[in-house]
Design a protein that fits this description.
The complex is a heterodimer of chains A (about 625) and B (about 325).
Chain A (H helix, E strand, L loop, with lengths): L1 H19 L3 H4 L39 E5 L15 H10 L4 E3 L5 E3 L2 E6 L5 E6 L13 H12 L17 H5 L10 E3 L5 E5 L7 H4 L10 H7 L15 E7 L3 E6 L13 E5 L4 H9 L14 H7 L4 E14 L10 H9 L3 H9 L4 E2 L23 H14 L9 E7 L4 H16 L2 E7 L1 H10 L5 E7 L6 H4 L16 H12 L3 H17 L3 E12 L4 E2 L15 E2 L13 H5 L49
Parallel strand pairs in A: 1-10, 13-14, 13-15
Antiparallel strand pairs in A: 2-3, 4-5, 5-7, 6-7, 8-9, 9-10, 11-15, 11-16, 12-16, 17-18
Helix pairs in contact in A: 10-12, 16-17
Chain B lengths: L1 H33 L13 H10 L6 H13 L14 H36 L4 H15 L2 H15 L12 H31 L2 H8 L4 H29 L3 H6 L6 H9 L3 H29 L1 H6 L3
């Protein structure tokens, strides 16, 4: 009896456990079926946007609490603008600081700390005239000497900044960086007074104004840095000059910014607080968006297009991005040395539309050249084969392969090398099978961990065909073309063509926009005719955005300062009509100050929103790291 | 006399700790540096001037042996140095912030696993070869086999997204955010402990002293709880030492899926980024935790196993 009782209790305990633990997932299935919680039509909707005469939103449509929570990908390495690199840190730094120039909500270069500037006739001297009423977030006045100090600091060997490479166009920068000249010799000086800054360059640098809007050129507060040393960028210490100040940083949990009341446009900044939430896993970010913990994701998982499109049609925002995905040839190794027809055959045999339709799937555009479309009005070079049908291309590819000496009797074996991340493997697989099918070329896939891959690619010894690509932080085709200069540190292809190099030199000195574009077009033509890369597609930026969040615009740089954003009130459910189509499209609301759109005539849909002309017609270039270091489980 | 035995044990463990850690540090120091690629590699190589500045800053320009001895000196002072990757933080700070979180989640998971696992195991052993035994053990087998990268998203989907009862992920020291990671981590351990307990219990139940206890007419509850349970737990305890050390130092998969800022991701992120100091810091720290827990297991053994006590001449 005793034993029986004991066993009964034990059984009860175990039964409860068994139900409570592993069966939870099944217990949760409701009669709704395994679909999802809140259907698109049942989610809270914002009220219609109403704009005032000055282009700002009417206060009556704004949510009471202006707090924006942005998913931000990887944890930023540092918030020291001079030592930071990577996209996540840049997003936060654009909110915290402001350079001499800055970007508008549409991604154009506009005056920042400098009100205006002069560029000398030889394009080597830039004179910036600063606003006179600027202050740091601690109330100290900000002047041109802060910029002198900051640019020197960025290039100081002791700072050991990795992103300082972008500042090499400044006179004597290389020598200062190498410790050969004192930092005082850097080509940065006050001109007449505390509010005039002169920067001398080693040579014409067409993208220099854009460079001055990037983190490595942001000012840091000298007393702040000297008081705290490398810890100056921690919360409580950091003094900044942007629209927000740093309030809290819990590593890998959140970074909280508060509105800076001393910012020069604080009156127009509606957001009171910004949360930057680092989420390493794209799917975790989407989950947090779905339960309403995030207003904005840094990306979406690359394999969930159909699902997102169906369930989050209003939230999913896709727009062109300044990035190209391509494969590179190692021109210094056989079989590719002096063998353009073989390379052309391999380029032709790829059906790019299959890759963008079936593999990448987020509306990426098949690409036939290096520079992605939509960069500052530049129209990329289009090779002749872009207009052919795939059958014609395949036919020509087979002819060229034969001409290069390969046949069934003498088959070609290749390796495609890529790093362990994202869609690289799927794309390599698709390319290999197309080559096999069309050309009978067998290609094996070599998968490498990111750092190993980078090293191999830079050494140019074991690589043959490899994953490449570039996403630029600068709205200038030059930032793509320069990667192929002889001896450029981004030139992992071993490409060297004096005609191409000479054209790029001319691009550097040419100040007439139309002529400069023609020169870049010509350079791109030379490059594409030399068959150095296999263009695959141009990138898109893709994310989920809360439809209540407005004021930002899709732009090719994918830069979105929070200070232009605001949250709309939620529409009353009682009075809500079925969601209008206007509303669905309006998340890309353009609120440019000079345009005065009536409330209904809102903006272009995200897919077509291109860059707009601006009176400040300068571009910029530099580098940006496309680091997709995903990893598997343990 | 027993006191003395324990002290001896502790002393020998402590002495053994030094060479173990030294071997661990030496091997991992040179292994991570053997890995191709360096901490400052990027999509585009840095200019030589910048590379030189960075290497000088982190002493990577010194000969490898000099770096090794410098590192040994720092470790003796419990200073793991600055992280290469998370430039605003030292490795000490990162561990100090990450470890309490991982330890809480892992510790709770182990606690849950222990109680639930033993309960299920005892139940199954008492019902040996019946339908309920097979059912419970079948489910336990399932628990071992289903990887946590399947369980975790399932839990999120059901509890957070459909149900809306719990937050989807993230960490802020509230119990709501702790439930799913704790359960996810505990499930395989529950299953493992249940199987260990069952096997061990069946063996113990066939031993002479249990037969004696039953023959004396002791109530079943007393037989099981007072006489059979303690020896049954021996294999469980030896499993739990290293398993606890592994759980409280964080799981990469669980941390990534639930966005938990624990210690586990640093192993993988540090190695992938060639963040030498971070990798070394967490490896040394992990080594110390493992040694500590093995020591605790030895102590528990001495307490649980009467034979060890008799050997000591009590």
């Amino acid at each position: 009896m005793n034993r029986y009782l004991f066993m009964r209790r034990l059984t009860a305990c175990v039964a409860v456990l068994m139900l409570a633990l592993p069966l939870i997932p099944l217990g949760g299935c409701s009669d709704e079926g395994l679909d999802f919680g809140v259907r698109p039509e049942n989610r809270a909707r914002p009220v219609e946007l109403v704009l005032l005469e000055n282009g700002r939103p009417d206060p009556s449509v704004l949510a009471e609490e202006q707090v924006v929570r942005r998913g931000n990908g990887e944890e930023p390495a540092t918030l020291d603008p001079h030592r930071a690199d990577g996209v996540p840190a840049a997003h936060i730094l654009r909110d915290l600081f402001e350079g001499l120039t800055t970007i508008s909500s549409s991604g154009q270069i506009v005056p920042g700390a400098a009100l205006r500037w002069n560029i000398s006739r030889d394009a080597r001297t830039y004179t910036f005239y600063l606003r006179r009423d600027l202050s740091w977030s601690n109330g100290e006045p900000l002047s041109a000497s802060d910029f002198v100090y900051s640019l020197r600091r960025a290039l100081d060997p002791d700072t050991a900044s990795a992103s300082a490479a972008a500042l090499l166009p400044i006179a004597n920068a290389r020598e200062v960086l190498a410790g050969e000249l004192p930092i005082e010799d850097l080509g940065v000086a006050l001109l007449d007074d505390e509010f005039t800054l002169q920067i001398t360059l080693t040579g014409p640098t067409p993208y220099f104004l854009g460079l001055m809007a990037s983190p490595v050129a942001y000012p840091v507060n000298r007393r702040n840095v000297e008081a705290f040393g490398e810890l100056f960028s921690k919360p409580g210490n950091l003094v900044s000059n942007g629209a927000f100040t740093l309030n809290e940083w819990v590593p890998r949990t959140r970074i909280v910014l508060e509105k800076n009341p001393l910012f020069r446009e604080a009156g127009d900044t509606l957001v009171e607080r910004v949360f930057y939430i680092p989420v390493e896993e794209a799917s975790a970010e989407v989950n947090r968006f779905r339960v309403g913990e995030l207003d904005w994701t840094s990306e979406v998982p690359s394999n969930q297009f159909a699902w997102l499109q169906k369930n989050y049609p209003d939230e999913l925002v896709i727009s062109p991005w300044t990035g190209s995905y391509f494969l590179g040839f190692n021109l210094t190794r056989e079989p590719f040395v002096n063998n353009p027809s073989l390379r052309m055959a391999l380029i032709l045999a790829i059906d790019r539309e299959i890759i963008t339709d079936k593999v990448t799937r987020f509306g990426e555009r098949p690409s036939y050249s290096l520079v992605p479309p939509g960069i500052d009005g530049y129209v990329p070079f289009t090779p002749e084969y872009a207009d052919w049908t795939q059958d014609e291309r395949n036919h020509e590819a087979r002819r060229l392969l034969e001409q290069a000496g390969y046949s069934d009797a003498n088959p070609l074996h290749l390796e495609i090398r890529y790093n362990t991340s994202g869609n690289h493997k799927k794309i390599a697989l698709a390319v290999a099978s197309m080559w096999k099918q069309v050309l009978g070329v067998s290609a094996s896939l070599v998968n490498e961990e990111y750092r190993v891959f980078l090293q191999n690619r830079q050494q140019k010894i074991v690589t043959r065909v490899f994953r490449a690509g570039w996403i630029s932080d600068y709205n200038d085709p030059y930032s793509f073309l320069e990667l192929f200069r002889t001896g450029h540190r981004g030139n992992d292809y071993g490409y060297s063509n004096s005609t191409f190099d000479a054209l790029l030199d001319e691009v550097g000195t040419e100040r007439v926009r139309a002529r400069r574009e023609r020169l870049m077009f010509e350079a791109e033509r030379v490059l594409m005719t030399d068959n150095v890369i296999i263009p695959i597609y141009s990138y898109v930026s893709k994310r989920l955005v809360n439809p209540h969040l407005r004021g930002w615009q899709p732009n090719v740089l994918d830069h979105h300062p929070t200070r232009f954003m605001y949250l709309l009130r939620t529409r009353d459910t009682a009075s809500s009509a079925p969601p209008s189509t206007v509303d669905a499209v309006s998340q890309a609301a353009s609120v440019e100050a000079e345009a005065l759109p009536p409330p209904e005539s809102i903006l272009p849909p995200p897919e077509t929103a291109g860059p707009q002309a601006d009176e400040v017609d300068d571009e910029d270039s530099s580098e940006r790291i496309e680091q997709e270091t995903g990893e598997g489980g343990s | 006399m027993r006191q003395e035995g324990l002290l001896q044990l502790a002393a020998s463990r402590l002495i053994g700790l030094v060479p173990t850690l030294l071997v661990l540090i030496t091997i991992s120091f040179f292994l991570i540096r053997l890995a191709p690629g360096g901490p400052f590699d990027a999509e585009m190589a840095a200019p030589p001037e910048i590379r030189a500045n960075l290497e000088a800053k982190y002493h990577l320009d010194e000969p490898l042996l000099a770096q090794y001895f410098r590192y040994l000196g720092e470790v003796i002072a419990f200073d793991f140095g600055p992280s290469f990757q998370y430039k605003d933080w030292t490795v000490n700070e990162l561990i100090a912030r990450g470890f309490p979180i991982s330890a809480t989640i892992g510790g709770l998971a182990m606690l849950l696993a222990f109680f639930a696992g033993v309960l299920i195991g005892v139940f199954a052993a008492l019902r040996q070869n019946t339908a309920s035994d097979y059912t419970v053990m079948g489910i336990a087998m399932l628990g071992i086999s289903i990887p946590n990268f399947v369980v975790a998203p399932l839990l999120i989907l059901v509890l957070a997204i459909y149900g809306g009862w719990l937050p989807a992920s993230g960490w802020d020291w509230t119990w709501q955010r702790g439930i799913m990671p704790v359960v996810t981590l505990a499930l395989p351990a529950i299953a493992y402990i249940a199987r260990l307990t069952r096997g061990s219990m069946i063996e113990v139940l066939h031993s002479n002293y249990i037969r004696t206890a039953r023959a004396k007419g002791l109530p079943e509850r007393t037989v099981i709880l007072r006489h059979a349970l303690k020896p049954t737990l021996l294999p469980v305890i030896s499993y739990m030492g290293p398993a606890t050390a592994a759980l409280i130092t964080g799981s990469v998969v669980v941390e990534r899926i639930y966005s938990i800022p624990g210690l586990g991701s640093y192993f993988v992120q540090g190695a992938l980024n060639r963040d030498y100091t971070l990798v070394m810091g967490v490896v040394v720290f992990y080594g110390m935790i493992i040694i500590l827990f093995n020591f605790i297991v030895d102590l528990l053994y001495a307490w649980l196993n009467p034979r060890i006590r008799y050997d000591e001449g009590e």
